[in-house]
């Protein structure tokens, strides 16, 4: 359940707190842990993928310019 609140409505009960902030905090914390555990591997993979993607884009761009 997600209920939109106005910004100036600052009074939060404990139910609201556990309902809105706790799951979000928990999910972000889990994502953060997973990211930390996979950080080095993900970093190398992302570097390789990004360099490959840049190479492919540049190659296609040169090909399209040559065909014109």
* Bulk shape: elongated
Q: How many helices?
A: 2
The structure class reads mainly alpha
What is the helix fraction of residues, given as a range? over 70%
Q: How many distinct beta strands?
A: 0
Kindly report the average pLDDT value. Answer: 76
Biggest sheet record: none
Percent of residues in beta strands? under 5%
Uncertain spans, ≥5 residues at pLDDT below 50? none
Distance between the termini: 56 Å
How do the SSEs run, as a string of H and E? HH
| Radius of gyration from CA coordinates | 23 Å
Transmembrane segments: 25-46
Protein name: Transmembrane protein
Organism: Cystoisospora suis
Keywords: Membrane, Transmembrane, Transmembrane helix
Structure description:
With 68 residues, the protein is mainly α. It has a domain at 39-68. Helix content is 78%, strand content 0%. The chain contains two helices and no strands. The protein has helices spanning 14-37, 39-67. The chain is elongated and about 65 Å long. The termini are far apart. The mean pLDDT is 76.
Short description:
It contains two helices and no strands.
SSE blueprint and pairings:
Layout: H1 14-37, H2 39-67
Keywords:
Transmembrane protein, mainly alpha, membrane, elongated, 68 residues, transmembrane helix, transmembrane, single chain
């Amino acid at each position: 359940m997600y209920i939109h609140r106005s910004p100036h409505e600052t009074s939060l009960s404990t139910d609201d707190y556990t309902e809105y902030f706790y799951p979000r905090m928990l999910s972000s914390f889990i994502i953060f842990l997973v990211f930390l555990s996979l950080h080095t591997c993900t970093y190398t993979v992302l570097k390789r993928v990004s360099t490959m993607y840049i190479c492919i884009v540049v190659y296609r761009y040169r090909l399209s310019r040559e065909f014109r």
